[in-house]
Amino acid sequence: MAEDPNERSDQPVVGPQTEQINLNLHNPVQSNLYGSEESKAAVKNLDQLLLGSERNLKRRDTAHAADLSTASARKIWRALGFPNLSEDEVYFTQEDVLALRVVSDLVQRDKLSEEAALSLARSVAQLSDRMVVWQIEALVEDMVAHQGMTDAQARRELLHVLPDMVDPLKKLLDYSWRRQLSAAVQRLAMRGERADGSTESLGEHGTDVGGSSLPLARGVGFADLVSYTSLSRQMNERTLANLVQRFEKRCAEIISMGGGRVIKTIGDEVMFLSETPQGGAQISLALSRLIKNDPLLPEARVAFVWGRVLPRLGDLYGPTVNLASRLVALTDPGGVVVDASTASVLTNDNRFVLTPQPSRNVRGFGDVQPVSLTQGEGPRLEDEDE
C-alpha cells in the first residue's frame, strides 16, 4: 500500500502502513563496544541466540509484516523501550513481528483498550530493563570477586558465560512471574471487598489522610539510611555499590518475610507496602533492628503510616505516601515512627510500645504528632522465621 505522508503518530495501534518517518540514531548493537574480533563474534552469536535469528528487518518491513502502520508499531516500540531508528537500520527479526502482533491483537480483539495494552507493554519493558542490568552486574561482580578478574575482563568473559545462562534465567523468570501473579490474585481475594464492590474500611480508628476517594487501605513505609550522603563522598564506586546492594538486599528479605512488598528503591531509601497495619509495624521494627545490627551498614530511619492509597503502574500515590515520606525525616537514627492515627490502630496490640512525641509542623499537613514505635511483648518478626 502506498505511503501517506499525512499519517499521524497518535492513531491507534491498528491499521495499515501509511507513514514515512526520518529518525537518525545508530543501532547500539552495531556500535564498537568490544575491540577484538573474538569479542565482536561473541556479541553477534549471543545477539542471534537471544533474538532467535540474525537481525534482517528494517522498521518498515517489521510493521508491514505485523499488519501495522509504522506509527502504530512505533507506539509499541516506544512502550517497549526501543531507541529511535533511522529508515535504513536493520534492527528487527521475526520475533519482533510476533511481539507487535501480541500487543496489537489485544486491542483488535477488544480484550483491552490501546492505553491498557501499551501500559502492559511498558510494565514488561521497564521492569525487565532493570532486571537484566541487575543480572549482568551480579554476574560481573561475582567473576571479579571470586575469579580475580578485572571489571573489563569480566565483561568480556560474560559474553561466553551468558549463552549457558539464558535457558535457566528464562525458566526462573517464567516461574517467578507466575508465582507473583498468583500471589497478586490471592491478595485481591483477601482484600475483604463486599458484594457491592466497595473496599474494606480503615477500621474504628483508621488513618484517612488519603480521603475516602482513594480506593485501598494499605500501609506505606520508608526506610532511609542515615548519613548516606556523607558516606557516599568517602567511598569509591564499588564500595558504595556494595553498600547500596546490601541495604536493598536486607530490606527486601525483611519486607518479604513480613508479607509486604518493596515498591521501589531510590539509592539510600526503600519504600514498602503492607497489607495490614500490624504487618507494617512489624516490618518497620525489624528493618530498623536488623540494619542497626549489621556492621557493614549505617543505621536507618523508618516511618510507617496506615491509610488510603492509589496504586498506579506499580507505584503508590496519595497523601498517605507523602506523610510517610516526610515523617522519616523527623525520625532519630535507629528509630521508627508512625503518625497518631496509625498509632491508634496499633494501641491495643501488646507487640508494640507507642510513645507520643512532641507535635511537629509537617509541610502539607500542618501540625502532626509523631509516635515512637518500639518492640513490645511476643516474638519479633525475624524470630518467627527461625
UniProtKB/TrEMBL annotation:
Residue ranges, annotated region (Disordered): 361-386
PROSITE patterns (alphabetical): GUANYLATE_CYCLASE_2 (PS50125)
Start and end residues of each Guanylate cyclase domain: 219-328
Xref: SMART domains: CYCc
Top-level taxon of origin: Bacteria
Name this polypeptide is given: Guanylate cyclase domain-containing protein
